[in-house]
C-alpha cells in the first residue's frame, strides 16, 4: 500500500544527494556569475551560506534551492551591468546588485501576501510556453559567446563592433537602451553565422561538453546517480585546462578572504565577507531606473513575478 507524506530520514542518502547537488552546481555557479556580470569566482565564493540558510529555513523536504540562469541575465539587463562595471568597477556593482536583490525580495514578499500565486496559476498555457522559450533563447544567447569564442563575450562584442551590425547596435544603444534583447540576439546571430571566428579549442570543447551533459547519462552505468555526467564533464575539462595551458577564459584563483571576517555559529566559523549596509543604501539604484522609484518598483515586481 502506497504511503504519503515526507520521506523517512536517511542521512546517507541525504549526504549523497547534497554532494551531487553541490558538485553539479559548480559549473552553473561559474556560468551564472558571469551571466550577472561578476567575476566567475564570486559564484563559487558566495553560494554556500545562502543555500545553507535556505536549508535551515524551509520546512518542505521536497523543495530544492539552487542557482538559476534567467535571474542572472535579468539582473544584468535591468541594471545595465556592463556599462556600470566599466564606469564604477566590480565592487561597486556587487553593492548595486545586492541592493536590487533587496528590492526584488521585498516585492516577492508583497506579491506572496496579496495572493499572486493564485493569479499565476491562471496564466494561459501558451503564455507559460512563450516565457519558457524566451528564457531558453536568453540563456543560449548568453552562453554561446563564452562557449564558442576564446575570450568570451568581450571578443564577440569587439567583432560585432567591426562588422556590418555595428550601426544597428549603436542605434539601439542610443535610441532604445532598454531593448537589450535586440542587441543580444544580434550578437547571437553574428556568433552563429561566423564560425571562422570561433576559438579553435574553445568551440570544440564547448560542443563536446554540451553534448556529453545532454546525452552522456545514456552511456553511463545505471547505478550512477543523476548529475554524474555534469561532474565528469567539469572534471575532465578542468584537468585539460590545467595540463595543456588552455588559452581561453578560466575561473582563476579565488582571492583570500579576511581571516577575521565571517560569522561564528558556535564552534563553526563561516568564512564569508559581509556587505556594508551603508554601501547598499548609498548604491545609486534609483538612478539606474531613470531616477524614478515607480520604475524601480515596477521592474523589481516584474523580476519577482
Written overview of the protein:
The protein has 305 residues and is an all-alpha fold. It has helices at 11-36, 40-46, 48-57, 69-79, 81-88, 90-113, 116-120, 125-148, 153-161, 166-175, 180-193, 202-215, 228-243, 277-282, 293-304, and strands spanning 263-265, 268-270. Strands 1-2 form a two-stranded antiparallel ribbon. Helix 8 crosses helix 9. The longest helix is centred in the N-terminal third of the chain and has 26 residues, at 11-36. It starts with 10 loop residues before the first helix and ends with a helix. The mean pLDDT is 81.
Mean pLDDT: 81
Q: What does the radius of gyration come to?
A: 21 Å
Shape: globular
Helix-strand category: mainly alpha
**Which residues form runs of ≥5 with pLDDT under 50?**
none
Question: How much helical structure, as a percent, in the residues?
Answer: 55-70%
What is the overall number of helices?
Answer: 15
Amino acid at each position: 500500500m502506497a504511503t504519503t507524506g515526507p520521506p523517512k530520514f536517511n542521512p546517507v542518502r541525504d549526504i549523497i544527494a547534497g554532494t551531487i547537488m553541490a558538485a553539479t552546481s559548480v559549473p552553473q555557479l561559474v556560468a551564472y556569475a558571469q551571466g550577472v556580470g561578476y567575476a566567475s569566482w564570486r559564484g563559487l565564493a558566495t553560494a554556500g551560506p545562502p543555500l545553507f540558510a535556505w536549508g535551515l529555513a524551509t520546512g518542505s523536504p521536497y523543495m530544492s534551492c539552487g542557482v538559476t540562469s534567467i535571474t542572472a541575465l535579468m539582473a544584468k539587463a535591468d541594471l545595465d551591468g556592463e556599462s556600470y562595471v566599466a564606469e564604477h568597477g566590480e565592487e561597486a556593482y556587487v553593492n548595486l546588485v545586492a541592493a536590487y536583490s533587496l528590492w526584488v525580495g521585498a516585492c516577492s514578499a508583497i506579491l506572496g501576501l496579496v495572493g499572486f500565486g493564485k493569479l499565476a496559476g491562471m496564466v494561459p498555457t501558451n503564455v507559460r510556453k512563450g516565457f519558457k522559450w524566451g528564457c531558453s533563447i536568453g540563456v543560449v544567447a548568453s552562453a554561446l559567446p563564452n562557449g564558442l569564442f576564446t575570450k568570451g563575450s568581450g571578443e564577440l562584442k569587439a567583432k560585432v563592433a567591426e562588422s556590418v551590425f555595428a550601426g544597428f547596435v549603436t542605434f539601439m544603444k542610443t535610441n532604445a537602451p532598454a531593448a537589450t534583447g535586440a542587441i543580444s540576439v544580434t550578437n547571437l546571430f553574428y556568433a552563429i553565422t561566423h564560425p571562422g571566428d570561433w576559438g579553435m579549442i574553445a568551440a570544440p570543447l564547448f560542443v563536446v561538453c554540451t553534448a556529453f551533459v545532454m546525452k552522456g547519462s545514456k552511456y553511463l552505468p545505471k547505478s550512477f546517480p543523476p548529475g554524474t555526467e555534469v561532474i565528469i564533464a567539469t572534471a575532465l575539462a578542468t584537468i585539460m585546462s590545467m595540463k595543456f595551458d588552455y588559452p581561453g577564459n578560466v575561473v582563476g584563483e579565488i582571492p583570500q578572504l579576511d581571516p577575521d571576517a565571517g560569522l561564528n555559529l558556535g564552534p563553526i566559523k563561516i568564512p564569508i565577507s559581509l556587505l556594508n549596509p551603508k554601501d547598499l543604501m548609498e548604491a545609486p539604484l534609483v538612478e539606474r531606473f531613470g531616477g524614478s522609484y515607480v520604475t524601480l518598483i515596477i521592474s523589481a515586481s516584474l523580476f519577482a513575478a
